[in-house]
Amino acid sequence: MGMTTPPRTLAEALRARDDESLTGLLRARPDLLSPVPNDITQLATRAGTRASVVRALEHLDRFALQTAEALAVAPDPASYDTLLALLTGDGQDDGAQLDDAGSAIRDAAPGALATLREQALVWGEDDRLRLVRTARELLAPSPQHPSPTGLGPTVAEATAGMSPGRLQEILAAAGLPATHDPVSAVAALAALFTDRTRMGELLDTAPTEALAVLDRLVWGPPYGEVTPNPTPPVTWLRNRGLLLPVSTRTVVLPREAALHLRAGRAHRVPEPLPPAVVAAATRDPQSVDSAAAGQAHLAVSTVEELLTSWNSGGPAMLRAGGLSVRELKRTASVLDVSEPIAAFWLELAYAAGLLASDGEADERYAPTPAYDDWTELPVQDRWVRLATAWLSATRTAGLVGGQDAKGRALSALGPELDRSAAPEVRHRILALLASLVPGTAPDPETLLARLRWERPLRGTSTSAGDTTDLRSRIALWTLNESELLGITGRGALSSQSRALLVSGPAEAAALLAPLIPEPLDHVLLQADLTAVAPGPLERPLADTLSVLADIESKGGATVYRFTPGSVRRALDAGRSAADLHAFLATHSRTPVPQPLSYLIDDIARRHGHLRIGAASAYVRCDDEAVLGEILADKRSATLRLRRLAPTALAAQIDPASLLEGLREMGYAPAAESAEGDVLITRAGTCRTPPRTPPVPVPEGPPHPDGTLLGAAVRAIRAGDTAATVVRKDTSQDAAAPAGSLPRTTSAETLATVQAAVMTGSAIWIGYVNADGAASQRVIAPVRVEGGFVTAYDHTADEIRTYPLHRVTGVAELADSEDASSGDT
Description:
Strand order of the largest sheet: 18-19-17-16-20
Number of strands: 25
Shape: extended
Distance between the termini: 6 Å
Largest sheet: 5 strands, mixed
Structural class: alpha+beta
Strand content: 5-15%
Radius of gyration: 39 Å
Number of helices: 34
């Protein structure tokens, strides 16, 4: 595969690579595989397209990108020594370029150049390095697109179109001999700017104000505006070509002069090494694991509390999708958290497939059937499912409350919250945390600096001091969300989270299980109508208590409060007063307070005294005085009641609204069926149809596995063989344009194929498949019968059978050897 002469094109450079190198290219740039290129030439063409080059540049670290930027302002082609000089400088800047920094650059430069070569952004030998044209266009300076290096155009580019007379004036002012050849004049001026001795002598004669102008332009941007009557310092610089005109009011500092002022450096601060992640604090690893486990248990409890509150049906979906601001505030109030944190829990439950819309005409959110399966798992397994869903989700809760590109508000559970960069940033942040000593909490600013060094072009800004780009915001959200979820504890990565990243869910669950407190089977009843749960409760106890009482506060211990409404809720769920007394006596470590017994008996005595059914709705009661009291109450005016009989009232609103209205008036009505039986409201009856979790939005094409990469390389090699193999020259081939399919008659095709079977030689064919796609192939025919040819296809690297009527033509190879012996 090796080539004895230097490559002249990118295609030739790729053709000279071995299979391992081509595999590395396709792995680093998977977009080149969609679809698999037919040959090396097509691969090189695709690697040079703007979209593919932009994607490749976005995945470079800062120093590899700085190396590419230096090549963009270097001569084309450039030697490795020229490139290294642009990165390290010439050492003539009064010691500003430190020896240790230069040594680090010289050590890192070969690796950065190897990365650019591997990704087909640079090709050529060390004495003739070439940056692909599209990358040069993207990184080279222009008035519309300033170079990232801050350098301007060369003298030749800036003086293009300048009159010979003006060139002569500049040469005379700079003390250079006159020449009538514009090319020689430009070359003489460029030679002056690149000669350190002569350039230093010229600048020694410059006014101090002129040097100040150069100082403002030297590190970019190199363009400046001038007035029709420029100041004497600017005039001095213009007369000597140190400022060249771009337009009538714009001048530019030429690249050669700027490089002299920069001591030959393309960048003010080369960054060959990634910034270190600095520790903000060091914790005891065991305390980190305990804190993370406690937060993990709280995360599971919070998601469960959220979805339990939606058991009877969640809020309605907005017409454009998502949750309204009012419903988000209501959810935050239920969870006793801020609205951004409530949005995070909502998005986490949605990403884990525990929450979805029901798909009805009046679409509402509700728990999914998967939620019921999830609640049956041990706490550690429930946490692992939440954590893995968060790691891979592209849903970004931090965007809730912001605006999209059209100025529309982004709502929780809305359709515009997917950001494909989120999983990569989360994994990278956690990987950096895992690289620290256990128990180390990092400084967030150093984490952001490291992230920007690794992907400087990703997001909306490449400024090292700008924290508003998307990746930086996702990184900050990741730190906050990982603490909420129990991935980290006290700012440091926990042992169970390390296991989740390295060993998988099973190992993480095993490490977390001993740290989860055992659920309790009792509470402590207080005389103030409260119950204290000193820890997590067993599921049956927690489920019943959540119906019988309202949660007043949460933390290490949970406080429940018994109210008339909560007791009525338990009675509506089918519990009797005797059941409630027995439940409390069984599960309380303290005596049942008398006020609580009285509350239960009082609510139970009145519960169901009033009966509501459908007329539109009606109220019936054996006590006529109670109905008279309702009619006399001014608050009942909105219920539009009228007496039908001494023990019955009719209403013109639906039963549910009538039930709620009478409860707000202080009564305890019960709904009844058409047969007159009391309707029991049970929790957990509202579920969506089976739903799958939302699919993460991929960031670019998927990364191919080893099998696909190997097959793709073989196909490209074989296609390249078919495209470049030397064929016997025929009159038809000579007249056909390069790259066209061979054309022969059916009789000639059959005769050539049969001859190849007898001689065992390979031939070149043109083939059109059933979809009409044409391709060139090199095959070694084995058998011809029934209108089909069976052959070993070097393009597919397997035995295939082709219909002869789809073969456009055949051509013999220049030699009779197997096609695989051709020089590729």
